Design the sequence.
């Protein structure tokens, strides 16, 4: 007898995160939303200058990706992927330990 695979859980939406934090802290949803917006703005602003660490959560940084050769999935033809900058997030050891045990 075949077993049914469980569908993966969907990630929380921004509204669900704000609701959960408001419920856990007793703050209003508006106050939590303002803090969320200020935090995302701060992360973006500081990460442009240098790496930004959220103690206990992780570190945002900008990295350079080298140019490389890839493949067109449909045709199999090789194509050149240009070098670019991208944002990287490294999870803290504390969070890894809480998730992985």
Sequence:
């Amino acid at each position: 007898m075949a077993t049914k695979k469980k569908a993966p859980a969907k990630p929380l939406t921004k509204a669900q995160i704000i609701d959960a934090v408001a419920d856990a802290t007793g703050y209003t949803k508006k106050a939590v939303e303002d803090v969320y917006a200020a935090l995302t703005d701060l992360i973006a602003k500081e990460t442009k200058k240098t790496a930004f660490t959220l103690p206990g959560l992780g570190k945002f940084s900008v990295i350079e990706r080298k140019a490389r050769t890839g493949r067109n999935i449909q045709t199999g033809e090789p194509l050149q992927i240009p070098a670019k900058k991208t944002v990287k997030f490294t999870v803290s050891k504390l969070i890894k330990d809480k998730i992985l045990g």
